[in-house]
Amino acid sequence: MTPVDTDERPFVLIWEVTQACELACEHCRADATPNRHPDELTTAEGKALLDDVRRFGDGQLVVLSGGDPLARDDTVELVEYGTDIGLRMTVTPSGTRSLSTEAVHALADAGVKQLAVSIDGATPESHDSFRGEAGSFEETVRAARDAREAGVPLQVNTTVCQQTVGDLPAIRDLVSELGAVLWSVFFLVPVGRGRVLDPIPPERAEEVMAFLDETAEEEAFGVKTTEAPHFRRVRAQAAQDGGGSGRQRRGGITAGDGFAFVSHTGDVYPSGFLPEAAGNVREQSVVDVYRNSDLFETLRRKDDLQGKCGACEFRHVCGGSRSRAYAVTGDPMASDPLCPYVPEEYEGALPERQASPADD
């Protein structure tokens, strides 16, 4: 596969097609509500956006997210349109009644390349409590099995915080049982409703990274982290110590560098967890915003990172979570407070830790 030049195009572009959702998840970045916003991009505007995204090049990966993308009645149409113009379309629906067997098969027929579902607890009780909806676990697992039957590759997303971290080994077993091709593990960023959750401290995060490295070596499915790029540093160090292959799915992706996010109303962000708009697709090309805006260009300059992230020998492999740095300090170029690693000769200030009641 030809390497992607992330100055020119992202590995992945996420379009939040709506913030409407039946669930009331405790960590929701979008503060999702039951009703659709009147200023959402229309079907025609959405197709125009996909036409523009096609300018990034062949096979650009596009994720339709929410909210719950199936709260829109044109999501299958958008998947089919994107597929027809050469995009790789994936969808991250919510585990609700909208994610019916019929809906899964309709997405498959439209050409969806992957379906991502969220599992945040190993039991119905723990998952449904986190998701704020009784029956969500059952609907999610059923949809995952429907995807396998429809021949659609499955991704499982899991949020890591104090409430969920103890369930990770059992969730890993469920990911394997469901035949998923990828486990995407998201480390909490304090935005949206996620501000009220307890993050895990940096030392615990490092333990989870080691567990994920072991999982990546042992399981048939791939493992990636979201908003925790120092997993790549942990994997590289494990390989240096002879403890693993250090095999990576891809190079370093951080907000604005290999990643772009379009909101339901068309604002272009470096990430859904870094809500600093660099433009709007109703007025500008998302391609031009990604390539040329000051914010995106700054985020791609790893040598301009501050604090220990800027001094770190892994900065071009990792780069730290720019979203978490922004959420905690207000500066997207500051050090990631979740990473405990300190470069050997670094003598500067250390970042403030992400506050957690569990540390009291």
UniProtKB/TrEMBL annotation:
Residues 7-218 form the Radical SAM core domain. Its cofactor is [4Fe-4S] cluster. Gene3D superfamilies: Aldolase class I (3.20.20.70). Pfam families: Radical_SAM (PF04055), SPASM (PF13186). GO terms for molecular function: 4 iron, 4 sulfur cluster binding; catalytic activity; metal ion binding. PROSITE patterns: RADICAL_SAM. The keyword Iron applies. Keywords: 4Fe-4S, Iron, Iron-sulfur, Metal-binding, S-adenosyl-L-methionine. The keyword S-adenosyl-L-methionine applies. InterPro entries: 4Fe4S-binding_SPASM_dom, Aldolase_TIM, Elp3/MiaA/NifB-like_rSAM, PqqE-like, Radical_SAM_PqqE_MftC-like, rSAM, rSAM_sf. This is Alternative heme synthase AhbD. It comes from Halobacterium hubeiense.
